[in-house]
Amino acid sequence: MALDAAYTTPDPSLPELLAERPMLRMDPSAGLLMEEVPLARIAAAVGTPTWVYSATTLRSRARALLGALKDAALPAEVHFAVKSNPNLAILSLLAAEGCGADVVSEGELRLARAAGIPGHHIVFSGVGKTEREMRLAIAEDIHQINLESAEEAVMLSALAESLGRRMRVALRVNPDVDAGTHEKITTGKAENKFGVAIEEAPELYARLCRMPGLEVMGLAVHIGSQITGGVRPYVAAYRRLGELVSALRAQGLPVPRVDCGGGLGIAYRDEQPASPAALAGAIHEGLGNLGLQLMIEPGRWLVGPAGMLLSQVVIEKQAPGRRFVILDAAMNDLARPAMYGAWHGILPVSPAAYRAPASPADVVGPVCESSDTFAVARPLPALPPGELVGILDAGAYGASMSSTYNSRPLAAEVLVEGSQWAVIRERQGFEALLAGQRRPDWLAPA
């Protein structure tokens, strides 16, 4: 999908973008604030590009989600999808709000434990768990492993038995439900690599219950990410799962738990995602009367709106019929526009720029790829060198997908709460780009 090509309505104005993001405010003299901290102050102290997160937003969204589950009388635990933002401070903050962790690698499991999340509040998902990762999950006595295939079940069974342990597991089912999201982030259709076909689940589930080393706890499902077409896909998936639970129990098989997955979308532009209350209602409709222990795995919904990428203009470049605003942030920092054609709002930090007339501009980075583009023909004021901009709603799949492409060091990360702020990840130094590299003895220095 070409960048911005999916939209036919006019882009939101700068005041409209600002009004929809309560953690941001334009001060007449200090410029754009996150909570009570001027972003220009952070840029002056830390440099750019820098990720900036609102702690208050993280807390309020976690409480809203947990509250919606409680209001719906659902016995559900929340396990934050660590892949969306694996920063230690953010994991610690969400853990303090009552969230566990959904992990997909050894690194994420170790980060969750370092953040103080106990093993019994961690779920391990993912289609390609290694033996080393399974050993660690068993050693940490985590809540459960979500099995994706018969082959993975055989591997884990043999390993757990050899260690004299029984590992709690759930079988991930692919319900063949189209969540109506981007093709690269859909996970619940028949052609996707995730889980086992729902038609094959009863036979495999019965096999799992007979395997040594496994304690079968139930089922898991996850149908995609950034789901914004209402709750209909969730309702369809949870109904199918509820029917499967009843069928398995009719065979005398225990099914005490269901992991309902995540995927609840956010409004980057003018999307209309479902609310936590609507998601809770969909879960209740399909699974709420089966006496199940329930779990959900939110990521983007919790952290996406809480973060931005703060960047500085390098230069404005005029071309025939085009105006390019070139930033010091690039696709190696925020990959979503290049990878998915994703739309992110962009706000100037200066109050003068915020009030100035706008004209179409292509906002791009300095990486040597044409796809290093954040926006096309976006209405923005003149942004001469040195002006600061904030790329909005970048708290999820922003820093976590960053790379050092073009030998660009990873950006710093900052957490804001009220009038205080702190660096929660130092900017990577250039010496770190060379760390670990070696020149063989047979190569003479240049």
From TrEMBL:
The gene is lysA. InterPro entries: Ala_racemase/Decarboxylase_C (IPR009006), DAP_deCOOHase_LysA (IPR002986), De-COase2_CS (IPR022657), De-COase2_N (IPR022644), De-COase2_pyr-phos_BS (IPR022653), Orn/DAP/Arg_de-COase (IPR000183), PLP-binding_barrel (IPR029066). Substrate binds at R300, R336, Y340, E369, Y397. It comes from Rhodovarius crocodyli. It catalyses: meso-2,6-diaminopimelate + H(+) = L-lysine + CO2. Residues 70-303 form the Orn/DAP/Arg decarboxylase 2 N-terminal domain. The modification N6-(pyridoxal phosphate)lysine is found at K83. The lineage of its organism: Bacteria, Pseudomonadati, Pseudomonadota, Alphaproteobacteria, Acetobacterales. This is Diaminopimelate decarboxylase. GO terms for biological process: lysine biosynthetic process via diaminopimelate.
